[in-house]
Amino acid sequence: MCDILQSVREQISNIENNTTECEDIYNAADACLENMPLEIILKICSYLDAGFIINTLSKVCSRFDEILADVGLWKHRVRSKVHGYFPPLCDIDESYEDSDWIEMCIEMEHEREKWCNVDKSTKHFVIKDVHYASVDSVILVNKGNICISGGRDRCLALWNVGDIRPEVNNEESLLKDIKPTKIRHDAHTGWVWDLATDEVDNASIVYSASWDNTVKAWDISSGFECIETFPCGISALSLEADGKIVMAGLYSKKILTFDLRVGQKPVHVYQTHKGAILALTAHNNQVASISEDKTLAVYDKVAGKILKSDIKIPSEKAYPVCLSWNTNAMYIGDSKGALHFFNPKDQSFVKSYELWPESCVTEPPNKIADCYQGEATLIACSDKGEIKFMYNSNPPDEYKTIQTSTVDVTQLRYQSGILAVSTCDSALEFWIPEERFTSSFL
């Protein structure tokens, strides 16, 4: 009997030992952050947005932080989104820091998510008849909190964007009771054609160009008062400013540089074009101009020197309208819907893209009224009110188009997620992110 009991005890002991071994095997197979295969981690990340990955997931543990800091991962993620080359020029890749790729990926995904779901992610507002004529110029400053508009009614209006909110018992986008914070009905004696600011994120001065042959400086930090008037001798059509320095492109083919600290006389005068100066823009210490003569010129705004001139814009029967320049590309939009791509370093011509191909002889072409480029995104607007959202690649990769409610767009501005356009329909239109209306933002 004792032998039988001993045998049973041994069998029970064996079973217990086997159970312990199985538990060890199961425990070893448990999924945890320390031993999860890299392939599975990357697969999970492919379903998450870039902002969440960087701001949350990478902080879960040191292993995730190490894996997600790999710049190769972000380069692949960025390039897998576009149908073309990114960045637009291959040699630009070398100038990017590792953190740039992360920021570009976050921008790409955030902008696409917002504009592909524009009805849910933004509120669209239309403001009409505050200006009683065409609104030809608009600018956003101070991280999108302030907007200034000017038009053919010769007035300037200053808007607190925080005051632009849905009206009670009004489900339409047209705001009927909104008024500007300040308005100057006598700002100029001619059409207000362009606006610029001393510092876009922390503006205290806004400059206005007019057909009354003047450029004026306005103090928007206290009272919206005119603090200086610069006589130009002829209509001022375009502006570019940096602090106390403002450059004005004139109808007379000249570009004048004024300094608020010096007085009313220009400190530099340039004449590199044979036609009216239609647009100016700056990048680093350089300024570029485009003209009715279909050429591009570049200046050193610090030294006051002409760097390049007579660079041909390949527009046979069209004239240049707008200009955008950053590290990735220089773009020139023309009056027949083409976007011309130039190398941002040496201003050599690269390629032209027909964003709005001509449809037929009888129908007027789409003019590219304005364009904006971020580090990874590109926005272009036709005068007929169609706004295209694209990746800033070669060629530009469109992912969404929206339509304005009013007609004949004149300018487009984009800052801190807020999109503003001015139109010939005496109107301003805004697309403001939903989060700006939440209590946490306020």
Automatic annotation (TrEMBL):
InterPro entries: F-box-like_dom_sf (IPR036047), F-box_dom (IPR001810), WD40/YVTN_repeat-like_dom_sf (IPR015943), WD40_repeat_CS (IPR019775), WD40_repeat_dom_sf (IPR036322), WD40_rpt (IPR001680). PROSITE patterns: FBOX, WD_REPEATS_1, WD_REPEATS_2. Signal peptide: none annotated. The keyword Repeat applies. Keywords: Repeat, WD repeat. Transmembrane segments: none annotated. This is WD-repeat protein. It comes from Danaus plexippus plexippus.
